[in-house]
User: What shape does this take?
Amino acid sequence: MIKRIGVLTGGGDSPAINAAIRAILVRALSYGYEVFGIKNGWLGLVEGEGEVLKREAVSGILSEGGTILGTSRTNPFKIENGVEKVRENVKKFALDALITIGGDDTNGVLHRMHQYGLKGVGVPQTIDNDIAYSDYSIGFDSAVEIVTDCIDKLHTTASSHHRIMIVEVMGRDAGWLTLYGGIAGGADVILIPEVPFDYDEIVNVIEKRREMGKDFSIIAVAEGAKPAELEKQVVASTKVDSFGHVQLGGVGNFIAREIEKRTGYETRVTILGHLQRGGKPTAFDRILATRLGVAAVDLVYEGKFDCMVCMNKNTIISVPLEKALSEQKSMDMELYKLSKLFY
Ligand code: F6P
Assistant: This one.
């Protein structure tokens, strides 16, 4: 019998997480469940921090970015006695089930905890949009809006100064955000991690545009993209987080030096960074988060655990976490090819 559900948000934040928390609470109350908000992702279950959320806790948060619960990149499996502490706190807080909102790392911990008897449902959230089986993850659409808006703004200054502008977009191994933002913003070259790039091709595009009388160009590059000859991605720091990720950043400057050298044109770099994760969610994200949040509680009600709610062709489905986590979401190469039509 379910009486109380825990909810936590882990990994990199994004707009619309709050919309999901609100949906979870409202749906849970309709079943007569209590919702226990855990602070700062899995860290809150290791350290035992959280509280019961009342209806007022989610009033007015639908349109607010960030997460009222706080987040962290904590992996209990990498902390001494981390798993035991999580189990103790699940017991202490009397959690009958847990809903985790995050990417593969956060939901991956939930899946591993299943073998220790934790009943849970995952909700896909990341601006990277790289979660298998979900056409969209919470936060992606809002981040696309931000990237598009920034590229729109870069157009006016690029054309005034006749410059090449490089805009560096988040996305470690997935180019979704760069591809969508790049197409929507009309970038002249789009570079994604899935396709190693060639400087000659970029220079050709720039020169072709000059011949057409276009004396500026915009290059959208994902932080994880790299030229074919480079073995590794460009990193901002070699420090590794508890899920084994290094902090990427700097590929824009790397490319800028080479492009400027090859073309002789003045080149500038804008790293969008965490601006992409901030601010208000789009209407699409609010609706997606609301649907996924409600569906997650419905799964708890139905007793279906160790799975994730996903949006597939505008329908909300559930996929076993085992399956979702074992696959990489493949890039839409048709869309990538389409983007090249406009180079
Ligand atoms: O996982 C989402 C993401 O936004 C990546 O695109 C990016 O590399 C990373 O988070 C940056 O994370 P942090 O918050 O640790 O700087």
